[in-house]
Design goal:
This protein has 86 residues and is an all-alpha fold. The protein folds into 2 domains: 30 residues, no CATH class; 33 residues, no CATH class. It contains 4 helices and no strands.
Length: 86
Amino acid sequence: MSKELIDLMEQANALTPDEQLSLIAYLTQRLQRCEIKRKPSRSVMEFAGIAPNLLGGMDAQEYVRRIRSGEPLELEIEQMQSRKEE
């Protein structure tokens, strides 16, 4: 939350219940006139192939297994990538 929003909430707490209702009505009417843009939903397929060489040729399942076990992989991935470039 922004500092401004926190300040406004504290100010709203100081208002009487009638004033709080008036504030809610004002904000509601104002927002009804605004067009709220929603983020478009994404398909997982949009990300296919986005980073094909990220693992340096290592099997993704093997990569996940080794990451979960805490094994360092950076050096091995660099070596696999350098072998591909040769």
